[in-house]
Amino acid sequence: MHFRISRGLLLNVIAAVFAVSAYAQSPTPASNLAGIKQLRERVDVSLSLKGADEFGVEAGEVAKIVRTTLLASGLTFAKGDFKMPGIQISVQGESTGGGGAQFAVELVVTALLPSPFVKERSIQAIIWRGTASGHHLQRYDPATKELIKPTGLIRDRVYESVKEVASRLASDAKAS
């Protein structure tokens, strides 16, 4: 059996593959935020930290950082129901012992949208997602033959990552 593929068909297949891979790299583009000027006042924060004493991260402080960053960009918060877009923040991390840790921050904006499947029904959809990760590790310096401890607190690095993701959301909201 011999198959003959036309040049036009081959180009269409290649274009489809590139389109799918480009979409896969950004499943929640900034354009999803178009028209959003207000967010729900309630900011949900989920902390999943092993060795939480070493982290010292507080959910209230995480929410405060996000609110402050977004308010500075022109987004506002209002009391509202689930029809208004909301923010969920997840901070996950694990202490590696000896003063070190690895962590990840995820900020998700969700909105209630009309269901494409059933009339007069709604679905909650993720319209924007941003992540940041970091580490706070000791290392051995062979030149000085000593352990070099990281400066600062783990908590401060986590808060900086929260601010980084919130700033990305703020700039994407301005750009849309």
Polypeptide structure, described:
The protein is built from four helices and eight strands; from the N terminus they run αββααββββββα. With 176 residues, the protein is of the alpha/beta class. It has a single domain, classed as Double Stranded RNA Binding Domain (2-Layer Sandwich), CATH 3.30.160. It has a four-stranded mixed beta sheet with strand order 2-4-5-6. Strands 1-3 form a two-stranded parallel ribbon. Strands 7-8 form a two-stranded antiparallel sheet. α3 packs parallel to α4. The longest helix has 22 residues. The radius of gyration is 22 Å and the shape is elongated. About 3% of the residues have low confidence.
Distance linking N and C termini:
52 Å
What's the architecture, going by CATH?
2-Layer Sandwich
Look at the structure and give the CATH class. Answer: Alpha Beta
Q: In order across it, which strands form the biggest sheet?
A: 2-4-5-6
Please summarize the sheet with the most strands.
4 strands, mixed
Rg: 22 Å
Report the mean per-residue pLDDT as an integer: 82
Principal-axis shape equals elongated
Poorly predicted regions are: 19-24
Helical amount? 25-40%
Q: What is the domain total for the residues?
A: 1
How large a portion of the residues is in β-strands, by DSSP E?
A: 35-45%
Q: Write the CATH fold name.
A: Double Stranded RNA Binding Domain
SSE order: HEEHHEEEEEEH
State the helix count.
4
Assign the structural class, choosing from mainly alpha, mainly beta, alpha/beta, alpha+beta, or little secondary structure.
alpha/beta
DSSP strand tally: 8
